[in-house]
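Subject: design request, 277 residues
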């Protein structure tokens, strides 16, 4: 026994052994940060890979692993994919559509009419490159790259019940008359269709805050959090949609996605408002 103890003591004093032990400790630390995830592939297949969630994120929109970039007036960490430029809300909606509905299958197989305001680049690339999608990427700004039509969401020029799908992310907080805009979205949505609406919501506000006196970029930044926002939405946003005539299914991302998934995909606690007639 004494000889065994002496042997162990000599090993512990050996610098090579100590170096190996330190490397093993570091390896264990790295491995503790790795997550095994399932990655979608073309043709509907998947494969598994690992990701260091301490520094890296996996973008479900473009299937790339990278360090996400900060984004926002008060920069949010791990917000923007450097490849497809997706942000938290867009990634959350894309994952929701993939997992919880048959919408994407229908879009890419049937000739559905899709209206998309201020189109996110990755959605635009996916839909505009599919001949099965009758895609209407639109914006109020005529210089917005790639749009099909210039459209004022408060006065949409299309006929009633034209679109199967409407996507409207990061838009209504910029619109002076959001109630009219919501009613217009409902008007052009087919009876069997769905509108997916997402806006920044301040959970500390029970009701939406807006004041016409806050008419300068400086005052809007101070009170609404961004110089081109015209209000700060509160927890009454769902009711505002209902008041406009929608039936609303509210998806809370912090309940729909696990904490692990939100870390891997760079998703924040948020809301997806799935709206229908």
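Subject: RE: design request

Done. Sequence follows.
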């Amino acid at each position: 026994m004494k000889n065994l103890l002496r042997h162990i003591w000599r090993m512990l004093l050996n610098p090579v052994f100590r170096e190996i032990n330190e490397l093993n400790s570091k390896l264990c630390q790295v491995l503790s940060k790795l997550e095994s995830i399932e990655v979608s592939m073309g043709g509907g297949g998947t494969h598994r890979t690992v990701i260091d969630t301490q520094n890296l994120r996996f973008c479900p929109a473009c299937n790339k692993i990278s360090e996400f970039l900060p984004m926002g007036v008060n920069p949010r960490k791990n917000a923007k994919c450097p490849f497809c430029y997706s942000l938290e809300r867009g990634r959350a909606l894309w994952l929701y559509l993939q997992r919880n509905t048959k919408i994407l299958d229908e879009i890419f197989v049937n000739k559905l009419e899709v209206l998309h305001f201020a189109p996110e680049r990755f959605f635009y690339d996916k839909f505009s490159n599919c001949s099965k999608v009758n895609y209407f990427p639109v914006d109020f700004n005529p210089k917005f790259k790639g749009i099909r039509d210039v459209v004022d969401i408060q006065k949409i020029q299309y006929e009633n019940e034209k679109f199967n799908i409407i996507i409207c992310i990061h838009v209504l907080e910029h619109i002076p008359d959001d109630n009219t805009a919501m009613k217009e979205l409902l008007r052009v949505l087919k009876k069997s269709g769905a509108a997916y609406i997402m806006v920044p919501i301040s959970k500390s506000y029970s009701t939406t805050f807006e004041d016409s006196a806050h008419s300068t970029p400086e005052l809007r930044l101070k009170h609404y959090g961004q110089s081109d926002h015209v209000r700060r939405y509160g927890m009454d946003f769902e009711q505002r949609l209902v008041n406009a005539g929608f039936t609303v299914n509210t998806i809370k991302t912090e309940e729909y996605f696990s904490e692990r998934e939100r870390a891997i995909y760079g998703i924040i606690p948020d809301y997806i408002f799935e709206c229908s007639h």
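The CA atoms of residues 220 and 226 lie 6 Å apart.
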